[in-house]
Every structure is written in structure tokens, then in C-alpha cells.
Amino acid sequence: MADRGYTKMKLLYIKEYLEKASDEDNPVSVDDIADMLEDKGISCERKSIYSDVKTLKEYGMDIISVRQPKTGYCICSRDFELPELRLLIDAVQAANFITPKKTKELISKISTLCSGSQAKMLERQVYIEKRHKCTNEEIYYNIDIINRAIQSGKRISFTYIKRRLDMEESKVITDEKEFTVSPYAMIWNGDHYYLIGNNQKYDNLMHTRIDRMKKVEILEERARSFSEVSPYRSYFDSADYSGKIFNMFSGDTQTLEISCDSSILEEILDRFGTDATIRVGGSENRFMLITKCVVSEGLVSWVMQFGDKIEVIEPQSLRKKIKSRAEEIAALYS
């Protein structure tokens, strides 16, 4: 190996070794580094290692020299701290739309962002087998295809999978339907990942679960502008949109006025944010919430889960739907 190549490779090997093997609880000594280099076929003097570590520090790596638990070097800070990696791993574990195979792959990649000993500690807390995960291995590629279609302003076609119960044979069967859609955004809501777009046959927005999509293809046709089927003009505000919908049911945006028991204030603020209008008054221990949201079957179900803690004042159409649903439930249990 030429001297120039030898120097470059030696420095890269030391950088990689420090990243993978060292942390504050597990420093690596100069002898450890020398042994590693020897395994790579590189012989060197101890003083050259000190010089290389100094160079890496000047490059910007946060390397410190410690004497406990043993004398050596370790990386003090990284791009991601352990609590941040824990959050990422927990999110991947909890996401039902990520298959078990891809879950393991992503967690393995996330674990490379810390030292080997830290990675083992993180992975000991990973439990995948008993979680309900989707089995559609295409989803990862579908996300990439949809994203490219959104960026290029093109329509997509796909096969959508839907399950239903065959009453005669008493079994679950799968139906497939073809769609052509103008894609606008992807939203992670609850346990699923959804595509928000426009079915070319209608003048509204549709939601489709990406884990139920197969054979996704980008078409040459230009996508329909979201300004024609939504209130957004300059860009599709996915954050605003997801904040107004319930359980991914589409519908018309209307002004919602509800009377809430003070005991569910936290739940109301978590759902609508602190920007929603809240007024105290009227009945004792209750407050009024006024906001805009999509009135749909999803909103009906959301309101009903609180029982008598929420009373819908407006719109009247929603009030009637909830009354009708409550009567149906009462009749079922009478």
C-alpha cells in the first residue's frame, strides 16, 4: 500500500472504530486501536495514533480522553442522542403499516447511529413478533413511488385491496379495485399511513391506506390541482388537513360548536390544539369549544366515545346524527 493511501485508510479505520466501539462507558485504548489496525493489515507506532485522534478532533468529532472505567478515547456526542434513537425505534415498532421484515431492517439501521454496546441495549427492548403488523412488502416502495409522483405533479394508478365477509361461506375474502388518482400528500394517522388524493371521477378528496395498495405506477398524465377539490391554494397543507379530520373519514368542513365537561379539557386540547376557541360559561363545570373541522362519520364516533361529557350544539346535522346513533345503540341493548 502506498504511503498516501496507507495514511488515508488508517484515519478512516480509526474514525469508524471510534464510532462503532466507543462510548462514555466503553472507551477504547491506543492499544485497542493499534490491534484493530493490525487486523486490517496496518502496522503503526503509538504516537501516530495520538496524531490521528487529534486530526479527527480538528475535523469536528467530539472525542474525549478518559481514565475511567479505563484509560482511552470515546465519542462524547453524536448526531443522535440515545433518547432520540429510542423514540425513533419505538415509532418504528408502533407503526402497523411497516412490515415485520422492514421493522427489523429499520431498527438495525437506526442502531448503527450509536456504539455497539448502546445498540445492544436498545435492541434488547425491541418486541416485534407479537405486534399486529401489515404483510404488504410493497408499502416501502409504494411510499417512494407516491412521493416521486407528488413531486413531479403526475397521477398514479394502483390496485386497492379491501376485505369483506362472505356471509354464505362464512369467511373473509379479498376484493381488488383499480384506481387512478391525483396524489397530494401522505399522512400518518393513528396506526396507518394514508394517501390523500383525488379520484379522477369525483370533485373531492379521498383517503386510501397505503398498506392496502399494490402495483402503484406513475402515469404520464398531469395530476389535477388540489385547489380544484380542496380549500388550499398555494400548497396542500397536510398538517392543517390532518388536524381537521377524524379517523380519516372525508366530509365537508364546517364550524363545530360543542359543550364539554371540564374533566376532558386535556383530551380536547390534545385533539384541537391551543388555538381553538374555548369559552367558559353556561352550565357549571363545562366549557364551549368552537373550531372548524370535517364533519363525518369519524367525527360522530369520536364525539360518542365521550358519552355525556360532550354535547354538540352546532351543526344541527351532526347533532341529529349523534342522536340517531345513540337511539340505535340503545335499541340494540334494550
From the helix content, strand content and strand pairing, which structural class follows? alpha+beta
Write the element-wise H/E pattern from the N-terminal end onward: HHHEEHHHHEEEEEHEHEEHEH
Largest sheet: 5 strands, antiparallel
Helix content range = 25-40%
Task: Tell me what portion of residues adopts beta-strand conformation.
Answer: 25-35%
Largest beta sheet: what is the strand line-up? 6-5-4-3-7
Structure description:
It is a single chain. This protein is α+β, with helices and mostly antiparallel strands and 334 residues long. The protein contains eleven helices and eleven strands. The chain has helices at residues 3-21, 30-39, 46-59, 82-94, 100-111, 116-123, 139-152, 238-244, 265-272, 297-304, 316-333; strands at residues 63-66, 72-75, 154-166, 171-189, 192-199, 206-209, 213-222, 252-261, 277-280, 286-295, 310-314. It has a five-stranded antiparallel beta sheet with strand order 6-5-4-3-7. A four-stranded antiparallel beta sheet has the order 9-10-8-11, with helices on one face. A two-stranded antiparallel sheet has the order 1-2. α1 crosses α3. The protein is elongated, with a radius of gyration of 28 Å. The model has no long low-confidence stretch (mean pLDDT 88).
